[in-house]
Amino acid sequence: MDLSSVSALRPSARTRSISPENPTGEPGGGARAIAGTGAEAARDLGAGWKVSPSLDVAPGETLELAAIEGAGTITHIWATTHTDHWRSLLLRAYWDGADEPAIEVPYGDFFCSGWGRFAQVSSQPIAVNPNGGFNSYWPMPFRTGARLTLENVSAVPVRIYYQVTYELDDAAADRGYLHAQWRRSNPLGDAEPHVIIPGVQGAGQYVGTYLAWGSNSTGWWGEGEIKFYLDDDADFPTVCGTGTEDYVGGAWNFDVPGQGYTTYTTPYLGLPQVIRPDGLYSSQTRFGLYRWHLLDPIRFATGLRVDIQALGWRSGGRYLSLRDDIASTGVFYLDAPVADRPTPPTVDELEIC
Question: Could you tell me the CATH number of the domain that includes residue 40?
């Protein structure tokens, strides 16, 4: 971030914040609740004393987290709920009155936590802090309005704490709309790449990837290349990486001699999570990886397609095509508030198993 921008005065901008304590974000609208999930704890203190810090979402229900009118930008989202619910909640964002969401991603995956277990993430757009404090700093511009929702697809109620901070200002008029799409291959087809973005039309820039990667084979799993097909690319991409660990800024199997897989989290790329087998039910090694293209966005003028291979090694120094469990979240800005997107995942497709 260019810190010089913090000192720039913008008289036309106004900060607002939506939470269970101020569900509309209106000026002076916070801490007015007289009923809520904290009412019993605040019975001796009354209004203004954390009466409504959270909301409950019943099974099958969709909670409207925020409804904003006018032009502006969402600048920060903080949320937390129990780890059991990180894959059973679907986060959606709608821009400018669109009927279809631009963001439709499992809650945990959007915050680089696809395996339902805590791991520290210290990156510029996403921060995950003990124990399950999820933070997003992705700028989310809109011209006429924004709506955020959270759907509970599980069979149990979920309690969610959250805060959505935004600016009302017309500075978003020339900015792209944030999109995020989730896809899972479980298992990946034989000799097939995992598709992150199958094809979107329009102009924009691809800005980030999160991968919840479960290895289904012994041995090394990260030789596969990521490929970005830009504009008129057909059979061959314009941008092609050299390996999965290379794409997220690592090298040589993430193996520090004597330590094995070694986690790291940096502003733009990381391997924040390695889940090792426990000798019982947790039988496979699982990884969480991210790569943010903030200083090096992948820009396209008419369209974009992204996929990644899963490759290991077999005898004779030959590559082995793997059939791993890969869930990806692809993040990009587009010149339109809607794009071609996958059908919403089912409960079975979301389940960690």
Answer: 2.60.120.1390
